Amino acid sequence: MTEQQLTAANTTLKRIRVNGIELNVMLAGESNRGPTVLLVHGFPDDNAVWRKQIAPLVAAGYRVIAPDTRGCGDSEISPREKDYQVDNLVADLVGLLDALDIDRVRLVAHDWGAIIGWRFVLAHPERTERYVALSVGHPNAYGQGGISQKLRGYYIVLLQLRGIIEFLVTRFNWLGFRAMTRFPGEFPRWKASLSRPGRLTAGMNYYRANPGMMFTRGLPAAQVPVFGIWSSGDGFLTEDQMRESQRYVNGPWRYSRIEGGNHWMQLDAADKLNPLLLDFLQ
Questions:
Q1: What is the pLDDT of residue 34?
Q2: Cβ(236)–Cβ(264) under 8 Å?
Q3: Which of 43, 103, 113, 145 is 20 to 30 Å from the Cα of 76, by its Cα?
Q4: Domain 3-281: what homologous superfamily?
């Protein structure tokens, strides 16, 4: 966010220790008014990926919480690969809400954040008023997404090459990384963040610590209202895995397709995404 946006949104940064890890957390809006919206980013992002949503949410009367998840942005890096297992990531969100004395949130999550978000909703429906899943559908729908989804998730296999893939994607000014992400507008921010010691490996450990994510099945259905949003320019996720998520939602379900936006729709198609968020969250 720019300095003007930060000021307008009454934004502060706070370090909060939860679940054995210190998180960098962006807080925006007035803590004593309006419902709370929790924004959870994915890989290779940090909370800055929400910079086009925070001010509109605050203007609409919400208190906004946007953490850097463990190992990402300016949050503490966990030293062990197993520290990034999804149950620990869910526990981080629970601990964060407890530390801030917040009972329930309206959750918006993207990419790996959406994976965490689904698992949070399934484990803690009493703490979720409603959930917006961006790009990634219910774990069962994603895991059973067929050959098309498996092919789009090729990078998950590559990321298992510990040490080797870190070397390969950063050669020649991160040529491999740029080829995988295909979003040149955000590349300078990613490079600056992930070039710091341990940061690239920490982000990749999300995939390494959860090897079964491509074949998940048997998880329960969500019991809260869910809004799935997919963008037609997404090269990593199929539309079917989001549409099929309706089968795993027992609460009210809504779906929207954003035409033209790439995987990072909150940046690439904010003008289309933000009205959808505001309509569902209210």
A1: 80
A2: no
A3: 103
A4: Alpha/Beta hydrolase fold, catalytic domain (3.40.50.1820)
